[in-house]
Write a structure and sequence with these properties.
Oligomer: single chain
Radius of gyration: 27 Å
Number of helices: 4
Helix content: under 10%
Length: 755
């Protein structure tokens, strides 16, 4: 879910209706995504990627995205009557989270009988269906039924399952309007079943790092269209809770199931006061599998001659010697948790002659029993594009899997509760001066247990091979659950002002300040996180200009974030150790956004962002078993994986009143592929284009081409490279590495039928 970003909350208040102008931003197609065929795009704010905030009916789709990702329970399908993008200030005040949020509402029943059937396919074999049927039952009763089915084989074949995404979501709504349509009560049930295989199938691939920021293909391996997963589907792991050795399939390990009940009530009083309340209870199994590539061993190098004796089993189960050149270590993380959450939000709002005031309350309860069981295995790195083989070193072990729970294993159990009071006021002080401000006060309570265990000397034991609750460390420390309990007061406030100097030109600015504390998931590793407050100030100021054919905004921005908790899996030789750290980030930026209509039928959107996100207080070290001390000091470095320049160009033209031709170009400048700025990837374009045809009043057809420039290459970070320094990287050229990659050329077809 790491996607593309820009710093700025572009001013959309001048182009949107009264109901959404204070809350939502325009000009951003969050579902036009170069990283995923089915999920929302993440809009960057100059900070490392965090949760993708998605709301449905005013409540978060899922309280925490690990292990329950948004894509397993929500899709932008026919079941939605509205999708938008909440501004940063609105997200902060109403949810307490940082960044933009996708805002969506479920389609309720309407008069008569209404239906929408959406279909989507691509040339790789995707089959996606979405159906909504709604109508009235008489006497002010209404119904709505929704079904979503996704059969996505991905862009390359794998052996563990026919599909890289198999998701089904069902919704049923019953609505009663009462008291002369002043009130509306809706009950909704949702069931979702999803296997998000793409979370481990598309994470990484081998390529040759040239040394100048470019990559080239490794043999016949095609980035994005060749599988880098072994044929084997079964995994052996040690249960973190019981210590038992167990087996599962990768497909079963990433199974997500959700049963959800939502109650919604809206009421309009005689005095113009509006009241809405939404309550959701969700019982789920959330799961996500990671197959992180680690070290690559060159078996043909002089230093490794005779050191290893790798073997594999052929199709008949016979043991044979592996004679390939490379072997790569993989860490498999089987993340799963049983989840119960009860989320309640209620709001009162009223429109006055020159302003709108809103008062709201959140009561959000989240309970989870979570663990991440980790296991290691080695695999071949085939240059001929064939499926990788699982291999093992006969000098060290006699089976594929080893180092159970030694590295990134996690455990926590308990509850997190957030009780918050918030308000906003959107006020036209004069015809020229608008002021929007709001605040949020939140009580956060954590209570439960984890496995951050200390020994008799007060030092954290850390993870070791066969780690689990009840295990005994080398120094005799027994691994037992550790109780934790915290109470924190969080607060956010925001203010935004727009002054119209003339009818066309004016000044705009806003400031948002967010104070948070760690979420429950921060307590998963072997050490406790820094529990100091996390503060995020975001300020912007600039100008806007509007006329009959142009809407332009240009803003300077500043954002920072303190006390980011992270755990680095540092690698030295074949050993991996976890290094916890806390660090700060700050970003300066400038952005210009313009929407132009120079002549009839033609629209053009332009967005330019320059930003310079840098690490502050980013220092950590860890000692490996051979005495080597791995040091990292990235203070002052550019934040990894975030570009400094982003450009969006979105032209479209109505060929006729029913046919629209459009394209979208997104440029991402050079990004660093490790924290030490040793490796980097050159800038690249992500491109989309399409033709939409309203064939009849009820039938719409479309064709979209993803990556129509057919750019190939790597992005993100390079596996196992965090300790590599700039000096060491200078001599590294034409070396095999692994990392993430651009989504390949894809032709998609869509059809939408109204009935």
């Amino acid at each position: 879910m790491m996607l593309a970003l820009s710093l700025v909350n572009v001013t959309a208040a001048f182009a949107q209706d009264d109901n959404s102008s204070a809350k939502e931003e325009g000009n951003r197609n969050v579902m036009l995504n170069a990283a995923s065929a089915n999920g929302p795009r993440e809009i960057q704010i100059g900070l490392p990627s965090a949760d993708v905030n998605v709301l449905e009916n005013g409540l978060p789709v899922t309280y925490a995205t690990n292990p329950h990702s948004v894509n397993t329970i929500w899709r932008g399908d026919a079941s939605l009557s509205h999708q938008g993008l909440l501004k940063i200030a609105e997200t902060a005040i109403t949810t307490g989270n940082i960044g933009y949020a996708v805002n969506s509402f479920t389609q309720k029943g309407q008069k008569g009988f209404n239906g929408t059937l959406n279909y989507k396919s691509n040339h790789f074999g995707l089959q996606e269906f979405s159906l909504n049927m709604n109508g009235d039952l008489g006497k002010d009763w209404y119904y709505s039924f929704n079904m979503y089915q996704d059969f996505d084989p991905g862009t390359f074949k794998i052996k563990s399952t026919p599909y890289q995404d198999r998701t089904q979501i069902y919704k049923a709504l019953l609505t009663k309007k009462y008291n002369g349509n002043r009130g509306e009560f809706t009950a909704m049930y949702k069931y979702a079943n999803s296997h998000n295989v793409y979370s481990y199938a598309t994470q990484s691939a081998p390529f040759i790092y040239v040394g100048d920021g470019s990559v080239k293909e490794y043999g016949d391996f095609k980035l994005g269209t060749t599988s880098y997963l072994p044929v084997d589907n079964d995994m052996t792991y040690r249960d973190m809770r019981t210590g038992e050795l167990k087996q599962t399939s990768l497909y079963d390990a990433c199974m997500n199931k959700t049963s959800e009940v939502t109650l919604m009530n809206n009421y309009r009083f005689d005095n113009g006061l509006n009241w809405k309340a939404t309550l959701k209870y969700d019982h789920s199994r959330g799961a996500m599998v990671y197959q992180s590539p680690m070290s690559i061993i060159d078996l043909k190098s002089a230093a490794n001659q005779g050191v290893y004796n790798y073997m594999y089993r052929d199709i008949n189960g016979q043991t044979k010697a592996y004679n390939g050149q490379y072997v790569q270590t993989r860490m498999s993380c089987l993340n799963a948790g049983k989840i119960d959450e009860a989320l309640f939000t209620t709001e009162l709002s009223k429109k006055f002659s020159t302003s709108t005031f809103r008062l709201g309350v959140n009561e959000w309860f989240y309970h989870i029993d979570y663990c991440s069981n980790t296991t290691m295995y080695d695999q071949s790195v085939p240059a001929d594009g064939s499926y990788a083989l699982r291999v093992w070193d006969a000098k060290q072990r006699d089976s594929y899997f080893y180092d159970f729970n030694k590295n990134a294993s996690e455990y926590y159990k308990g509850s997190e509760n957030k009780l918050a009071l918030y308000f906003t006021h959107d006020w036209d002080i004069t015809k020229k001066f608008n002021l929007y401000y709001g605040a949020r006060l939140e009580w956060q309570k954590l209570k439960g247990e984890n496995a951050a265990v200390k020994n008799a000397q007060g030092d954290y034991v850390g993870r070791f091979t066969d780690y689990h609750l009840g295990a005994k460390a080398a120094d005799g420390t027994v691994i037992a659950p550790t109780d934790l309990s915290y109470n924190w007061l969080n607060y956010d406030f925001s203010v935004a002002a727009t002054y119209k100097l003339t009818d066309n030109f004016g000044f705009t600015g806003d400031f948002t300040y967010i104070v948070q504390h760690p979420k429950f998931e921060a307590f998963a590793p072997a050490t406790l996180p820094n529990t100091d407050k996390i503060s995020v100030p975001l300020g912007r100021a600039g100008i806007y200009y509007n006329n009959s054919w142009l809407s332009l905004t240009s803003l300077f921005s500043y954002i920072s974030k303190t006390n980011n908790n992270s755990t680095l899996n540092l690698q030295h030789g074949s050993e991996i150790k976890a290094a916890p750290l806390t660090y700060d980030i700050q970003t300066w930026g400038w952005t210009t956004d313009a929407v132009a209509h120079p002549f009839k039928g033609f629209d053009f959107h332009f967005l330019f962002t320059y930003q310079k996100p840098t690490y502050k207080k980013y220092e950590t070290s860890i000692t490996f078993s051979d005495g080597y001390v791995g040091n990292i000091n990235a203070t002052g470095n550019i934040v990894a994986e975030i570009p400094q320049i982003l450009i969006e160009l979105d032209p479209s033209y109505m060929i006729t009143k029913d046919i629209k031709l459009w394209t979208s170009f997104r440029y991402f400048s050079k990004t660093y592929a490790n924290i030490n700025e040793a490796y980097y990837f050159n800038g690249h374009w992500e491109t989309f284009g399409g033709l939409n045809w309203q064939a009849t009043k009820r039938l719409a057809l479309g064709c979209t081409v993803v990556n129509f420039l057919n750019q190939t290459g790597a992005k993100g970070s390079i596996a196992g490279a965090e300790l590599i320094t700039k000096d060491e990287a200078k001599g590294i050229k034409n070396q095999i590495m692994t990392g993430s990659y651009l989504r390949p050329f894809t032709v998609e077809f869509t059809a939408s039928l109204k009935f």
